[in-house]
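Hey,
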Amino acid sequence: MRLLIVEDDTALRTELVRQLTAEGYAVDSAADGRDGLFMANEYAYDLAIIDLGLPQIDGISLITQLRKSGRDAPILVLTARDAWQDKVKGLEAGADDYLTKPFHPQELRARIQALLRRAHGAAQNRLEFAPLVIDTDAKTVTLKEQPIELTSYEYNTLLYLALNAGKTLSKTELTEHLYAQDYDRDSNVIEVFIGRLRKKLDPDGSLAPISTLRGLGYRFNLPPSPAQPQ
């Protein structure tokens, strides 16, 4: 998943980038609202974290402009502890949730995961596509109740495909949402990860969880389990 952080506090911004990169996200950042607006309009993000007290363009105006331009990715706003009015304004402008400073890294992680799941219609942290189960909190994958060892890149690729089950995703889209901004988009890295996932998830070729549509991209084929909340 690709995240945008717009925060003018250098220390906090740097720590957020470090923390979320370590969590396996592709992370871009901006120090003011003007650069944040440019980046949000230039690239496709799965979620934005926006501080309300920004220079150049304040956070409320930034959120308002993003929503008016049709950017519908989830937005998590950062606010001061006593600024309840700003929380209300942020939500009314189009933000999806807020987090009060200072906050614990685990709370940030939980809110991001909840917003990403909600954006893709998944109500719980367990994505079930019998016999495959993805636990987004533990970042684990089981097949027929047996754990499958995946690298972080393999897991991220599988999760993005699964969250967009039934949709055809191009190699370019996958690369933009999963990997760093300066990643070589002409490389065959996506093909490598897809190949590894097929070998680990479907060694005998009976499940066919991922299809390749020549010239178009890839599609996750497994339907959600009947009891899976939508």
